[in-house]
Design brief:
By secondary structure, the protein is of the alpha+beta class. It is 42% helix and 15% strand.
């Protein structure tokens, strides 16, 4: 299993996240889900499975056509983290009601969540959200207009989350690019060869040049997983965002990590791997400009996101081969992106990401 260096700090939080990635998702049968929904919400629904890495997610539809998402948390997930997600979604709904995020559906007794017992006496948390119409961006052709919409959309979401606080927001997780150094020990699990050398070089770049700068940068609660699977668009207008989903990786962290994480997913699909990320970042900056220290490391953190994607997915796929296709969905692109960035200096990568081409117009 994934080993974590006990000398790197925040040991309890990292153990919690390792447990979440090591514990299989619940597998309630459709009839069990229907029974829970009837008891808790008073609804008769049809049930359809949705993809998920840690939780069991179900799409529901009632007789009147209303649709919902029923979430059954991984048993290892702490209740306060579920409360954190619920509070963030409700904060966005109050402060920025135009944001295309799901709404929390309250139970018959007014609660936002409940604890249920699974097979073997294991307890977990369940909750319901509204279902958002649209298709995942990954199912549509990539365009500059779409990247601009995504960049502006993330900036607007970050503005909506400004000032939001919660006791669980300070938790840490393996998918936090700002804590990538805690995966250093996982480098030894890679097969000896070019990929291990590549990963070691980017980990050294993060530790030497990025990590010392992070504490001085602005930070807030961020979505932390804004990518082609978690953003929905209109089927006939793939540059119009209709939904932002999956708030399970939220945390309080440097804002630039949010931008870099999202930009990393735009490297594929263009002859120039920096074209897509550059369009995305410029659109983001048209609403929320990055500071000079943030600009200095945003490209480094983009590479760091690919690094942790490669490391975590390699380990997860070995542990859960039955879910390999879902776990490894970003792995090939991560290794390709690291290879594309390997020959560039830190400053060259920064300039490629932040400097418009002569023929490009601002968003």
């Amino acid at each position: 299993m994934l080993r974590l260096d006990p000398h790197l700090g925040t040991q309890g939080a990292m153990r919690d996240q390792a447990a979440a990635l090591s514990t299989a998702a619940p597998q309630l049968a459709p009839a069990e889900v229907q029974g829970l929904v009837k008891r808790l919400y008073g609804l008769d629904v049809g049930v359809r499975a949705l993809a998920g890495e840690r939780d069991q997610n179900c799409a529901l539809e009632s007789a009147d056509g209303a649709r919902y998402v029923f979430k059954i948390s991984n048993p290892s997930e702490r209740v306060e983290l579920v409360d954190f997600q619920i509070a963030a979604i409700e904060h966005i709904a109050r402060t920025s009601p135009g944001q295309p995020v799901p709404r929390v559906v309250r139970m018959l007794d007014g609660r936002a969540r409940d604890t249920v017992e699974l097979a073997g006496g294991i307890q977990t948390t369940v909750r319901m959200l509204t279902y958002l119409d649209g298709i995942q961006i990954r199912e549509t052709p990539r365009t500059a207009a779409q990247r601009v919409a995504m960049g502006r959309g993330l900036a607007a979401l970050n503005l909506a989350l400004q000032g939001f606080t919660h006791p669980a927001a300070a938790h840490d997780l393996l998918w936090n690019v700002s804590a990538a150094h805690r995966l250093t020990v996982q480098l030894d699990s890679l097969v000896e060869g070019p990929r291990r050398v590549l990963a070691q070089s980017f980990m050294a770049r993060f530790v030497d040049h990025v990590l010392p700068r992070l504490a001085s940068l602005r930070a807030q609660v961020i979505h932390n997983d804004y990518h082609l699977y978690n953003v929905l668009v209109a089927p006939h207008d793939p540059s119009r965002i209709t939904g932002i989903i999956d708030f399970g990786d939220m945390l309080h962290a440097p804002l630039v990590g949010e931008v870099a994480t999202a930009a990393a997913f735009h490297m594929a699909g263009c002859a120039d791997p920096f074209e897509g990320p550059a369009q995305f970042v410029r659109a983001y900056q048209s609403i929320v400009p990055l500071t000079e220290p943030e600009q200095e490391i945003v490209a480094d953190l983009m590479a760091t996101r690919h690094l942790i994607t490669a490391l975590i997915s390699e380990w997860r796929a070995l542990r859960y081969p039955e879910n390999r296709d879902y776990i490894m969905r970003h792995n090939p692109a991560a290794w390709q992106a690291l290879s594309q960035m390997a020959d560039l200096s830190r400053h060259e990568a920064r300039d490629r990401l932040l400097t418009p081409t002569p023929t490009e117009t601002p968003p």
